[in-house]
């Protein structure tokens, strides 16, 4: 359980909250690059950490991310005209460039020079990995853009999508880093079922309840779930959590389902009650196929998520199209789509779960540690310091999944560079 004060501290992300201030020290995914496909294309509404913004790509291809509401009389610039290096409000024709400068006014005489006195909020942006990232923090503290292996991969070898989740970002994050639920919630009941999930013959499912081991590092932590399989073997699944909201997990890519791929989520708060979940996948071998990009197994692709609103077709209003017959015979939940199952359980906890009422056990170690690190980040920022995970490059971080002899140190399965990282604490 978490005291009420800490629950508020960790979940609220508005501009004047402790977590809001901490989160504004990191680069944050604002939208997919493909939402702004070409110069002067239509602007897109973006809500980030409770702030209503609008993104546009100007005539020169530069990206603007500015206050959605025109500083004249607060009309939405979503209705604006994206023309000649600026976004023009359709009400009285005030026009703003990507830096937020007012460069023209149609309802005031030019000789007045009023336009030069007006400026709107504009945040710096950068494109990487098919995502447009934004920095909402103090200009003098802006860190370098994070370098993940997947953001630097060729577009042929990576894929990214997004979907709205109707609950606080911490619920999504805690679900993502909680390895103990995976072979339970996402279990398929019979070996011949074609439903997405983990098959009963899979070592992940055959393994007994996991022991969790976790190393705190300068970016967050790495950890593993170790599941005894009998016959001197165990199943290992090793992950990374990077502050404030990144997960890197093992993924089985391609038709062979080989365990060397990587995938992850980023849980970006839209506001305190809504989250934009970014889903990425990185194949280190073969390029990803068109079929891979449909994300049928996860339920995050264009068949499952409206690509204009980014709302899931299976959602709380229709009980995620739960089929009780399927739940009896084929899958643990009766809901199709691994991440649809995640959204169903996480949204069912309420918009912001009351963590004073929980009963956490040793299997929740990773969840407990993430809370600790995030609370610590808020206090570090309050004290004028730099939180974990702002500075380092994450280029070498990789996940791992394998069946190995019992007693094998799971750290040896991670890339050697990762193995050499300084460990701040072993939990
Ligand atoms: S409200 Fe935008 S120009 Fe008047
Ligand atoms: Fe899950």
Derived from helix and strand composition plus strand pairing, the structural class reads alpha+beta
Q: How many helices does DSSP assign?
A: 10
Low-confidence stretches: none
The termini sit apart by 18 Å
Q: So what's the oligomer here?
A: single chain
Cα-atom Rg, whole angstroms?
A: 23 Å
Q: Provide mean pLDDT, rounded.
A: 94
Q: What is the percent of helical residues?
A: 10-25%
Report the sheet with the most strands, covering strand number, pairing sense and barrel closure.
Answer: 9 strands, antiparallel
Strand content: 25-35%
Order of helices and strands: HHEEEEEEEEEEHEHHHEEEEEEHHHEHE
Description:
This protein is an alpha+beta fold and 427 residues long. Helices cover 17% and strands 27% of the residues. It contains ten helices and 19 strands. It has helices spanning 4-11, 18-23, 149-152, 169-176, 182-185, 203-206, 324-329, 338-348, 365-382, 416-419; strands spanning 27-32, 44-48, 51-57, 63-67, 81-82, 87-88, 95-96, 102-104, 125-128, 131-135, 158-165, 211-216, 220-230, 233-242, 246-253, 258-271, 274-282, 400-405, 425-426. The strands form four sheets. Strands 11, 12, 13, 14, 15, 16, 17, 18 and 19 form a nine-stranded antiparallel sheet that branches. A four-stranded antiparallel sheet has the order 5-6-7-8, with no helix packed on it. Helix 4 (169-176) crosses helix 8 (338-348). The two termini are 18 Å apart. The structure holds FE2/S2 (inorganic) cluster and fe (ii) ion.
Offer a concise description of the structure.
The protein has ten helices and 19 strands. The strands form four sheets. Strands 11, 12, 13, 14, 15, 16, 17, 18 and 19 form a nine-stranded antiparallel sheet that branches. It has a four-stranded antiparallel sheet with strand order 5-6-7-8, with no helix packed on it.
């Amino acid at each position: 359980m978490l005291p009420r004060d800490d629950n508020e501290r960790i979940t609220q992300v508005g501009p004047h909250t402790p977590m809001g201030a901490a989160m504004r020290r990191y680069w944050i995914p604002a939208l997919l690059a493909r939402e702004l496909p070409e110069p002067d294309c239509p602007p897109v509404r973006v809500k980030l950490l409770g702030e209503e913004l609008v993104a546009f790509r100007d005539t020169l291809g530069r990206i603007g991310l500015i206050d959605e509401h025109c500083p004249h009389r607060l009309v939405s610039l979503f209705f604006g005209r994206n023309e000649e290096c600026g976004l023009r409000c359709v009400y009285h024709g005030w026009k703003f460039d990507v830096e937020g400068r007012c460069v023209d006014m149609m309802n005031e005489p030019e000789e007045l020079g009023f336009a030069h006195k007006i400026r709107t909020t504009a945040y710096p942006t950068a494109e990487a990995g098919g995502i447009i990232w934004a920095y909402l923090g103090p200009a003098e503290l802006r860190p370098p853009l994070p370098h993940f292996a997947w953001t630097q991969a060729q577009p042929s070898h990576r894929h990214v999508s997004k979907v709205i989740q109707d609950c606080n970002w911490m619920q999504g994050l805690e679900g993502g880093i909680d390895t103990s639920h995976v072979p339970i919630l996402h279990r398929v009941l019979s070996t011949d079922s074609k439903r997405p999930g983990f098959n009963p013959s899979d070592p992940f499912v055959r393994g007994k309840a996991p022991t969790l081991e976790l190393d705190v590092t300068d970016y967050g932590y790495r950890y593993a779930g170790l599941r005894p399989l009998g016959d001197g073997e165990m199943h290992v699944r090793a992950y990374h959590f990077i502050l404030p909201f990144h997960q890197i997990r093992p993924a089985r890519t391609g038709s062979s389902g080989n365990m060397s791929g990587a995938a992850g989520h980023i849980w970006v708060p839209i506001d305190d009650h809504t989250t934009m979940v970014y889903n990425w996948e990185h194949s280190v071998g073969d390029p990803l196929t068109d079929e891979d990009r449909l994300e049928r197994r996860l339920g995050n692709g264009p068949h499952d998520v409206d690509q204009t609103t980014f709302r899931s077709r299976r959602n709380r209003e229709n009980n995620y199209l739960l089929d009780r017959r399927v739940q009896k015979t084929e899958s643990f939940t009766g809901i199709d789509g691994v991440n649809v199952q995640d959204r169903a359980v996480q949204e069912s906890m309420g918009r912001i779960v009351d963590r004073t009422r929980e009963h956490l056990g040793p299997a929740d170690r990773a969840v407990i540690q993430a809370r600790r690190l995030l609370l610590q980040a808020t206090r570090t920022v309050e004290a004028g310091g730099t939180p974990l995970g702002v500075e380092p490059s994450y280029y070498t971080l990789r996940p791992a999944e394998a069946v190995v002899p019992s007693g094998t140190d799971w750290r040896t399965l991670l890339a050697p560079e990762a193995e050499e990282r300084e460990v701040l604490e072993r939990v």
